[in-house]
Design goal:
- With 486 residues, the protein is mainly beta.
- It has two domains: 196 residues, Jelly Rolls (Sandwich); 173 residues, Sandwich (Jelly Rolls).
- Strands 1, 4, 19, 21, 26, 27, 28, 30 and 31 form a nine-stranded antiparallel beta sheet that branches. Strands 5-8-15-10-11-12 form a six-stranded antiparallel beta sheet, with no helix packed on it.
- The longest helix has 15 residues.
- It is elongated.
């Protein structure tokens, strides 16, 4: 394994984290004053995003070279492509040139790299046990040509003599309990493709606590009924097929009866039905033009990857740590791109300390309730009691900054200042600490997040500065990785 220093006296150009390489943007330009003394943690500046790192490794394989991008497992072994569950995160290095692996020796606590966005299973096979049948409803597999041109569309048939609808006493199909879940505070989008058969009316139902549904005529392409805080849509995609979609905010966590699909009829005859294909349930923040509108998912490990950005998923007990020596730094700047999927107070995304309440020289950014927060501490602490608010499930680019001598701690989320603190931080500098990712000290306050790019941590000494122009350049690069428009 070759460890390539990232911040060296012989400075290499620094690429924008996930976009085009800026002209002549170097470390010395980013940190012009005392650059030789600045401590920093970063990944490979040439290919820092997960997807770019994967592409670099694939190119190395094709050329017969070792995979040399800095995605490393907990023990320093390069992560191979395709990235699978149980593999580690990435290598971090500081200015010493020796580098510090981001360590996690427990495989079950490493999180996982994934490209899965659709929560549902068996999205093109509604005969599968992932889809339960209610009151006599039946499904015929491979009954029609799908919108993709494959013989994979299913026929949904209401039970004989039973009302076809989405009620619990009606004839319909629904996602089996535990297949999908809705988390309070997050907005979701549910979609399916449908085509008229002997029957022509479909109802698509999402239960984010107060039911949301759309009922539509598949011969005319018109919406007959729509209940929910956000209007549903129906779009013609050709050959008689329509894509129906509904979006709503979950006001309570729900894992049962989340999704229901029905061929509407006052009384089924046991043979007549409609055709359905391609069910998709995702965060509405992932229903964006840069990501395909539908993702096939057969099993949890068998799904379409093309067009879906790689992310690192941390939850429950996932975390990692590295180490740094700030070398007398009094200012910090942290860049991060990801999503908070649920949050309580002070769940660390990046935290330089295992015990910030008792340690001095601490900084960090946090998943905090329905938003994010920032902390900076010399001998005295500075952290908001409320955080930014309103960001759960939203694709977010966070820029956290701390300045001990000037008693400033700030957090910018998606280009807007979300937190600004001017509380006395006491005196001193940031101290040599382990840096924890995803949990406090690896034992508590586990963050439930997706991360689209490795965090960038810059630590500056009193005479060093980072210009607003360069902060904006880096912020835009992270925004591109997260699919955020600033």
């Amino acid at each position: 394994m070759i460890l390539r220093p990232i911040l060296q006296p012989a400075v290499r150009p620094l690429a924008a984290p996930f976009g085009r390489r800026p002209t002549a943007l170097t470390i010395s330009q980013l940190l012009p004053a005392g650059a030789g003394r600045v401590a920093a943690i970063y990944t490979d500046p040439a290919k820092p995003s997960y997807d770019e790192c994967i592409a670099k490794n694939m190119a190395a394989i094709a050329a017969g070279r070792p995979q040399d991008c800095v995605l490393f497992s907990a023990l320093g072994v390069p992560v191979t492509y395709p990235i699978g569950a149980g593999q580690g995160k990435y290598l971090l290095k500081d200015r010493s040139g020796g580098g510090h692996d981001q360590l996690q020796v427990t495989a079950s606590a490493r999180g996982e790299f994934s490209r899965r966005y659709n929560q549902l299973l068996a999205t093109e096979d509604f005969t599968n046990a992932a889809w339960q049948k209610r009151n006599g409803a039946t499904v015929v597999a491979n009954a029609a040509i799908s919108p993709a041109g494959t013989l994979t569309a299913s026929k949904l048939v209401p039970g004989a003599g039973v009302f076809g609808g989405v009620g619990s006493d009606h004839s319909n199909i629904f996602a089996a309990p535990g297949v999908a879940s809705l988390v309070a505070g997050i907005t979701y989008t549910l979609s399916v493709y449908a085509k008229a058969g002997e029957l022509s009316v479909i109802t698509l139902y999402l239960d984010p606590n107060s039911p949301t549904y759309i009922k539509a005529d598949l011969t005319t392409g018109t919406i007959l009924d729509n209940v929910g805080s956000i209007p549903g849509t129906i779009d013609y995609v050709g050959d008689g097929w329509y894509r129906l979609a509904i979006t709503d905010l979950a006001t309570a966590t729900n894992t049962t009866g989340v999704v229901r699909i029905a061929a509407d009829t006052p009384s089924g005859d046991g043979t007549s039905g409609i055709y359905i294909w391609g069910a998709d349930l995702r965060l509405s923040a992932d229903a964006i033009p840069s990501i395909p509108a539908y993702q096939r998912v057969t099993t949890a490990s068998d799904y379409d990857e093309t067009g879906f950005p790689t992310y690192w998923r941390a939850q429950t007990d996932d975390w990692a740590k590295s180490h740094m020596n700030p070398n007398g730094a009094t200012k910090a700047c942290v860049f991060w791109a990801g999503q908070q999927l649920s949050g309580a107070a002070a769940q660390p995304i990046v935290e330089a300390s295992s015990a910030p309440a008792s340690n001095t020289g601490v900084f960090g950014i946090y998943s905090y309730g329905p938003g994010f927060n920032v902390r900076s501490k010399g001998t005295l602490d500075s952290i908001s009691g409320s955080g930014s608010g309103g960001h759960t499930g939203i694709r977010s680019v966070c820029v956290g900054r701390g300045d001990i001598p000037n008693d400033v701690a700030s957090l910018n989320v998606n280009g807007v200042q979300a937190v600004l603190l001017t509380v006395d931080q006491g005196t001193g500098t940031y101290i040599e600490h382990d840096v924890f990712f995803g949990a406090r000290g690896g034992t508590a306050y586990f963050a439930n997040i997706r991360e689209y790019a490795p965090p960038l941590i810059l630590l500056l000494q009193p005479t060093d500065s980072l210009s607003a122009t360069h902060i904006t350049k880096l912020q835009k690069g992270y925004a591109k990785a997260a699919g955020v428009t600033l």
